[in-house]
Every structure is written in structure tokens, then in C-alpha cells.
Predict the structure.
Amino acid sequence: MIFLIARRDLLERWRDGRLLWAGGIVLLLLLTALAVGYGHRQEARAEQQAAQTADYADWLKQPRRHPHDAAHQGMHAFKPDPALAILDPGINPYIGSTIWLQAHRQSEVMFRPAQDATGLQRFGDLSVGWVLQVLGPLLVIVLGFNAFAGEREQGILKQTLSLGVPAAKLLWGKAASIGMGLAVLLLPAALLAGGAVLTGADEGTGLDALLRFGLLAVGYAMYLGLFVFVTLGVSALSSTSKVAITILLSLWIVNVVVAPRVMSEFSRQWYPTPTRLEFNRQLGADLKAASDRLWLANFGTTERWGRDVPLNQWGRALQLDDLNSYAVYDRNFGRLWDTWERQQAVQEWSGIVLPLLSMRAFSMGAAGTDFAHHRAFTTAAEQHRRVIQDVVSADLVEHADKLQAQHFGYQSGPELWRKVPAFAYHAPPPRWALAHSWRSLCALAAALILSLTFARVAVARQRAL
């Protein structure tokens, strides 16, 4: 009976053109977004790899000079785009892609692509994720807004119920009809997307990319599924198709347009972040306090690099100063990053009633383009900066300090530069991504259960009307 109901409804949607035209437009946008995302990712990945190789070559080709000068030249760490950035670029266009690994200071990420974008950037990037998150629910509404209300207007619903058709089977039949319509449109796009992800994955990461793609598929199935049940529930409670589509479009506008902005502001009010000036002032004060304690304990003075520190101690002083600053940077940047993650958590939990927010977070997490993955890259880059500092400082202690007054006459060459390995970043595995996306997944599951309960209650009321 469920199959017969689904088949009849699907044929009706095909004949009235909704499935063909509305679905065709969404499918065309999906394929366009996939092609654009694939081309952009391949270009960006090639540029990143070439830049990383050239930057390390520049490090190795340095002339003989004082190691401390080499540390100030430093390196650059370039953030690689993950394979699933083809589908959901996430925050990558807004948060930067390059970190300068300079001496004595943890740098921020630079060169955000959004800086070079036009004003249209505020409407979002055309990506597969954006199409499914924003237009996917709209397509569900178009396909199902009159599932019950339209039949009530035509008198068909009363006849169907009079034949003894159970309300539960009627609900599942109509849900299956919409699901089959979506599958006809989305499965071909999903196969192409899976092939593009596998083709674009770096060597040795194909399995991880496919597992992440599977997580994305599950998330979007839940997301579109909950809108199927919300649409059917509203249609069942609405007296006419016009009332149903008015209510559903209002809910869509709240979910897509209003909710992201409101919840973003609310999360920042709940967990306020310091301004750049406040952060830099606090970081500077903490560094100075830690430095004063260190220099007083080891050199009997708080004046850094003064006469009280002989040249045969400068290498050791640089080494101790850098080691001492690591904890300060970890504490200050960690506190800032934790605040951003708390803001994200507020938005994810609000996805129980505003599912776009939880779906967006889960999509970015599975694709590897959310803040948690960005934090992992930033941490890896900072650890590599510390490797440079430690190698250089150890060389100064071993060789330059022994020269005493000739400390700054000491020079190193390629034999030292080669001790610093090239920066190579490997994204965390899918299970790490899933562990960091549990809130958004739970919110999606809760929203799906609530929408199903709502639809069952709404359809069960039809017998009482």
C-alpha cells in the first residue's frame, strides 16, 4: 500500500511538471556548483603545493649566515584544501590559507580569498553544500506542500480515509513519494560528486575522502528527511494548499535567512570575543610578565638583551625565551579558539529547531572545512615554527655561544638548514571529524525525530476531522 501511494503521488508530480522543472533547476545548479568547486580546488591545490615546495627550496638555498637571521626569515605554511572542499568550502574562503612561521612570534593566518571577492560574496558561495542546505528544503516544499491539503480541497483525502487506509501508511507513502523524487534527482549528482572527490583526493587519502563523503550523505539525508516530514505535517494541518505553502515558505525564510544571522549575534553576545587590540594587549602583557620572571631567575635582570647578559649566553637566552613563550601563546590562543568553539556549539544546538545551523556545521565538519580542522592546521603550523626555533637555538648554544665576543660572527650553512624538515600537513581522519561533529549530528537527529512526531500527529488528526 505504501508503494502504491508513493507511485501515484510521484506520477502526479511528474505530470504537473514540478519534479521536472523545480528538480531540474536544482540538479543543474548542483552540477554547476560541482564543476566550479572541482576546478577551484584543483587550481588551489596545485598553487599550494607549488608554493610550499618553492618556500622550502628558498629555506635550503639561504647563504651562510647567522642562524638567528635565518630564523627571522622563517618559512610559510600553506593550508591544503581537503578533497571535499569541492562540495563544501566551509570557512576556508574567509579565514585565510597561509601562516608565516617567523621567529619569536606565533602568527595569524593570512590571505583570505574573501578579501578579493565582490559584494556578491555576502550571499554565499555557489557550492554543492549551499545548494542542498538552502534550495534543498525549498525543493521539498515545492514537491510536498499540497500532499494532504490539495487532496482535501479535491475531496480525495476523505475518500482515501473512508477506504480504511491507515494514517501511518498514508504518511509513509507520501514521504516515500517525495524521497523517491529527490533520489531521482540527487543520486546521479551524488555519483558524480563521489567520483570527483575520489579523483581530487591526494595520494593515499582516497578511502578517508570516501568515508567523509559517506558522512556527508547521511547528514544531508537526515536534513532533507526532516523537511519532508515538516512539509507533510503542515500540509496535513492546513485547510488549503495556499495556506500550506505560505506557512512553509515562512518557515524556510526563518531557517535560511533569519536564523543564521540572529544566532550568530546571540552566540557572540553569550560568549563575547576580545577585539584584536584587546587580544594583542593581553598577549603582550602575558609575554612580558613571563619573560621578566625568566630573565630575572636566569640572568638576574629583567632587561632583555642588555649588558648583564654576556654574548656567550645569548644563544641560551634565545632558547630559554622561546621555550618560555610557548605556554603563553598556547594559553592565549587556546582561550580565544575555545571561545569561538563555544559560539559554534550554541549555533549547533539551536539546530534542533533551526536545522540549517546544525546541517551547515556538520557539513563543514565532514568536509574538513570547519573551524576545528582549521585549528588543527594552525596548531600543526605552530609546532613546525617551534621546530625551527629549537633547531636554530640549539645550534647557537652549541657553536655561537662558545665564540663569546665573536658570537655574531658565527655563520651556519646548508648543513643546518637541512635539519629543519619541510612542512607537511595531514588532515585528521574521518573518526576525528565525526567526534568533533557529534553536537550537530545529535541536533539533526533530534530535529528529525521531532519532525516525524509532528507529521504523525498531524496526519492522525485527519480521521478526527
In short: Residues 114-123 have pLDDT under 50 and may be disordered.
